[in-house]
Amino acid sequence: MDLKRKRIIFVNFVAILCFLCIGIISTHRWTNQAKIPNQRIKNHVQFYKMDEIYEMKINQILTGDFSTLQGKWKSNPSLEGIQFVIKENCVWYGNQRYFLSVKGQENSGAVALERPEIENAAPFIFYPKGTPIPVLLENGQIDRTGIFDPTDQGKDRIIMAQTILNKELIKSVTAYHE
Hints:
The protein is an alpha+beta fold. The protein is 29% helix and 24% strand. The protein has helices at residues 3-34, 50-62, 167-173; strands at residues 71-74, 83-87, 90-93, 96-99, 101-105, 111-114, 124-127, 135-136, 142-143, 157-160, 174-177. β3 (90-93) and β4 (96-99) form a beta hairpin.
């Protein structure tokens, strides 16, 4: 037998041996994986109730973390309303920038935010979803039940007001998170 033929037989033998080894290894790997017991991994997702989420959001804002307020806020577009952007601890209102600080929590559950660089400025009052805005009625009474609140209580809202307003004024100065 000549040397060239011996080399071809040897190369074919090595190739067949490699394929056999790969086949044995892959078969062994699949059969061992099939023997692994099927275990259920416990789910560690925490679910919160709406009142817990509300409380966390309020606590976050009261500690000076305004991240839940970040973004565009806009009042009803059909009215001559307001629009502004909150980014970190700043309010961008037109071309003006104001810094936010926490003034305190209102009796209604809302949070008053002030702009300390403006003396006697109306505070921004954050009303989370589900919290009614107090309304000044025509007879001089103040409704805190939410029955006369003209805003969408299903959304977070910010109102810029020094005092309690009537329904029409509340509609025009209430901004919603976009």
